[in-house]
Amino acid sequence: MVASVAGGVKPASIIDIEQRFYRQLIAGQQREQGSMPLAAELEELVFKLEVEREAAMQRLEKKQQAQALIDNIRNQLVKTLLGELDNHIAMPQLFLKDSAISNKQLLLLELISSSQLDLNRLRPVVADIPWLGRDLITIVNSPAFVAKRPQGSDIQVNDLKLVLNYIGMDQLRLYIPYYLCRHWLSANPSLVWVNRKVWRYLQLQAVAARALAQLHQQDGILLYSVALMQQLGMSLLLGVAANIYERLRHTWRREAMAQRDGELHDAVSVCQFPLEQLWPIIATHSANLCWQVPSALGFADAAPIKLLRERASSVAFSSLSDTAKILDKSACYAKCLLLEELQQLSFSDKKLLFTYYELSEQEQIRLSGQNFRKTEPV
């Protein structure tokens, strides 16, 4: 019975397991350790907002009918948010305006997927993305990187041309998608904990995809990049929704202050970002947004975007190209790792997933030998 599901139209049993995984990823327990460091100012802001929310909750608890007011405000906020988010999804330019993605970033990903790329073409594009240039400069001047330089080369390097030369083309093809995809995870305080989980999931996929690509003698760096992009739609949706939500809350709090309504102000303040209610929209739209957003920016023909579109458009694993199959297999393996950590994956479920995605014994051995604790690009 299990063998009969291999590769065909995805059966309900597989869909159920994957839906359980994504629901846990988005709306499950939020506070957990992750490999996505927080900027000091963001960590301070998150702490401040939690303190303010707790203080507002304590004030409301002293009032009669406070919970009814909170529930009413929360329902209104969610309804307004979902309506505005639907409008954003239906209007690409509106969606792009609120997201963290740009055509310059996608141009970089297109350039590094080309075998004809040289540093002279890459440098001006990197220079047009100041935060990325700063990240690359930080890498070159880090103690670990300085130790790899020739003797006497431990001076600080700030010239972008020298930085790119020091890193080298092969490593840039890893670093650039790594930092771009991390940047697409919104810095909104409401998303700190869920983004840590999404980022770890992406990193596990990327490590698995690169290992399988090497096993099958395919372009490991291209597949590493695309694996990091596999939740682009989810990342952008969460970021856009969080931006809309914070604007709504700011407007409503300001109006409450103007009306000198402290209870209303506190009720708005204690409402948290509604991840549970967003889940159906994410489940419906995220896969297609992975390729639709880059296509709206003019990159429909870029190799990474073609692979993302192929994955989103396919109804059966068996219909995918060999390259796209590696991406599905890497995503399957990453899901299993994370569900096992949460003790939410039975042996039979894991066997079912491995059978459907046709993970051979050789592939399983290769993946089991990877160090998934080290998820940085080098």
Subunit arrangement of the protein: single chain
Q: Rg to the nearest angstrom?
A: 22 Å
Terminal CA distance:
42 Å
Beta-strand percentage range: under 5%
The main pleated sheet reads as: none
Organism: Shewanella electrica
Domain HDOD: 108-260
InterPro entries: HDOD (IPR013976)
Keywords: Coiled coil
Descriptive overview:
This is HDOD domain-containing protein. Keywords: Coiled coil. The chain is mainly alpha-helical. The protein contains 19 helices and no strands. The protein starts with 11 loop residues before the first helix and ends in a 10-residue tail after the last helix. The model has no long low-confidence stretch (mean pLDDT about 85).
Sum this structure up briefly:
This protein is an all-alpha fold.
Topology:
Elements: H1 12-27, H2 40-61, H3 66-90, H4 92-98, H5 103-112, H6 119-127, H7 130-140, H8 143-146, H9 160-167, H10 169-183, H11 192-215, H12 220-228, H13 232-258, H14 262-270, H15 275-296, H16 303-313, H17 322-341, H18 347-356, H19 361-368
Helix pairs in contact: 1-15, 2-14, 3-4, 3-13, 3-14, 5-6, 5-10, 7-9, 10-12, 11-12, 11-17, 12-16, 13-14, 13-15, 15-16, 16-17
List its traits.
single chain; 378 residues; mainly alpha; 71% helix; 0% strand; globular; coiled coil
